[in-house]
Structure formats: C-alpha cells, structure tokens
Amino acid sequence: MAKSAEEEHPKKAFGWAARDSSGVFSPFKFSRRATGEKDVAFKVLYCGMCHSDIHMVKNEWGDSIYPLVPGHEIAGEVTEVGSKVQKFKVGDRVGVGCMVDSCRSCDNCKVDLENFCPKMVLTYSVKHYDGTVTYGGYSDCMVADEHFIIRIPDSIPLDAAAPLLCAGITVYSPMKHYGLDKPGLHIGVVGLGGLGHVAVKFGKAMGLKVTVISTSPNKKDEALKTLGADSFLVSRDQHQLKAAFGTMDGIIDTVSAQHPMMPLFSLLKTDGKIALVGLPEHPLEIPAVGLIKGRKTIGGSMIGGMKETQEMMDFAAKHNVRADIEVIAMDYVNTAIERILKSDVKYRFVIDIGNTLKPPS
Q1: Nearest to 210 by CA among 186, 194, 180
Q2: Measured between alpha carbons, how far is 86 from 151 in angstroms, rounded to an integer?
Q3: How far apart, in whole angstroms, are the C-alpha atoms of residue 157 and residue 149?
Q4: Can you give the pTM of this predicted structure?
Q5: pLDDT in tens, the chain (361 residues)
C-alpha cells in the first residue's frame, strides 16, 4: 500500500541509549516514523524511570535489542496529529505507557485488554509490525497511534502524572479486577516503593483501610505520616502477624524480590485474594495449605488496557492521586540507576526531558 504524503518523511529524533548490557547511557540519534494518518506526535517533556528499564538495559530478561532507548512513563504535549485523528489536537497534554500497538482484533483486544494481546507491541526494545525497533521516552519526541495515547487532565502536573502510566495502572487494575476497590474493605500493600506508594494512595482514594506490609521497620513513619496508610506491619515480626491474622480482604504484592508467601496468606480473611504485580527473578514458593485453608486466591496482573488506563488517569485527577517523585536531569540517568538499585529514591525518578535533554553534538 502506498504511503500518504504525511507518512513519507521520518522524524529525526535524539535521546539517551544503552549500547549494551553494561547499562551505561550516552546520547543517541535515531529516527521516529513519520506521523501517519491516525498517529499523534508529541514533544516529550517528562519520562519516569521504572525498574523494568534497568532489567531491560542490562538484558536480565534475555530479549533486549540494542541500542536501547528505555522509558514507558512518558508525558508531553501534542505537536502534530494525523488527518484521521479524532480524539486529540495540537497542544493537548498526553502520555504513553507500556505499549504502543496491538492487533486490535483478538479476543483480548475486543474487550479492551490490549495489554494481554499476543501481538502487543511494547513501547521500547521490540520489533514493531513494520520491522522497526521501538524506542522509548528517554528521548525528545514520540509518535503513536491515537488509540494508545492517554489524555492527561490539566489538574495533574505532567511530571507527577508520568509514573501513573506504568506504576499507577499496575496497581489500579488489580484493585478493580479483584474487587478490592469497595469502600470499607481492608487491603494490605506489600512493599513501599514506586508501585507500593501509589497503591496506598489509590487505596485511600477508594475509601479502603490500607495496611503497609514491609520488612523494614524504618518505613513506618513514611507509610503512616507521609502516605496516609492506616496501619503498618513488619512482615518478619511474628507478634504483629498474629495480631493481624485473618483481617484483610486482599493484598497487592508489589515486591520483585524473593519473599515468603505463607505469612501473607495468614493475613487474609476467608475468600481473600492476593494480586501479584512484582516480578521476582526466581519462582515464588506457594504452599498449597495457605490457599486451601480459607479458600484463598492468588492471581496476577500486568498493567491494564487503554480504556482502563484512561479511567485510572481520570480517577487520579479527580481524587488528587499523584506519584511522589524526584525530578532529575537527563545526564543524571546513570547515577539514578545506581540509586534505584540501592532503593535510594522516594519513590520515582522522573527525567525532565523538556528542559535538560540536549541534542547530541
């Protein structure tokens, strides 16, 4: 099929890329596809740093493509729209999360679950249908089909909205799917990092009682005083576990490290649910007795479809849910990765792309 005039000329782009699994970033020039008739092009102003970015740049999952420009928490302003775009116009505040395309015809796509489409195209480091490699938001501009663009309401600052496009939907979706969004329910949030702190905020906005579950007693004040959790439980303290036995309707488990599951099962009421959203490197041990006693359920969740992601962003705007962030310059990214690996951030680094990304010389 012949390309339209608006699709013929690729866009020059630049950003920062990792060239190999050492994970060291440096400036990089590349091309974005031209704005197609259903595409939205936007200037990237902010991009959050997800722990997945580190897994990918270090090729810890074995499928990275280099040079690799990460970033799937991308917020900016529309600069151009294709002739058949209906939902967006130049100047709109928008974002892109973890995916930029899907087949649109499978059973999952038909029910707004593009995130489970077998042919879903990730925002970076995969081959697109046209054979090109996708590049993420550590860059000056983005181009994507309007179906995969999220509108960011004016009431949310773009820098604080960016992490919601991954961290936000990652915890919001299982709360909705597993019925853990009803006012008055009691949920536990395991882990108080980039995902966990947003889960606490969404839980409180939904009218839930929220208990933070952590191995670190020193996180108690930030959980209760800073984030507004109702209670705090040290998962290694047997007295605290016993006192909380059978009190929770559900648990959102955000931890990506190995951790025992049996103590978490003990906290659930009959018919309680645990939703896993972290990605531990090695398989978790799941004792069957912990599920059988009390007819408990363990399940998983991975981001969300486009309809639900827009719903999440609108909910966040209405209820003043924001990610707690540390804004950094583009040239700080290598140091930021070292700090993420040390858990030395509260709670998400966001790169100020618009003000600090300079064209390569």
Answers
A1: 186
A2: 13
A3: 17
A4: 0.94
A5: 445 434 567 889 999 999 999 989 999 999 999 999 999 999 999 999 999 999 999 998 889 999 999 999 999 999 999 999 999 999 999 999 999 999 999 999 999 999 999 999 999 999 999 889 999 999 999 999 999 999 999 999 999 999 999 999 999 999 999 999 999 999 999 999 999 999 999 999 999 999 999 999 999 999 999 999 999 999 999 999 999 999 999 999 999 888 999 999 999 999 999 999 998 878 899 999 999 999 999 999 999 999 999 999 999 999 999 999 999 999 999 999 999 999 899 999 999 999 999 998 7
| Neighbouring residues of 225: CB distance < 8 A, sequence distance ≥ 6 | none
CA dist 223 and 179 (Å) reads 23
Q: Which residues pair with 78 in a beta bridge?
A: 42
Q: What does the alpha-carbon distance between residue 312 and residue 73 come to, in Å, rounded to a whole number?
A: 14
User: Residue 200 and residue 190: Cα distance in Å, rounded?
Assistant: 10
Alpha-carbon distance of 137 to 165, in angstroms, equals: 12
Q: How many CB atoms lie within 10 A of CB 292?
A: 10
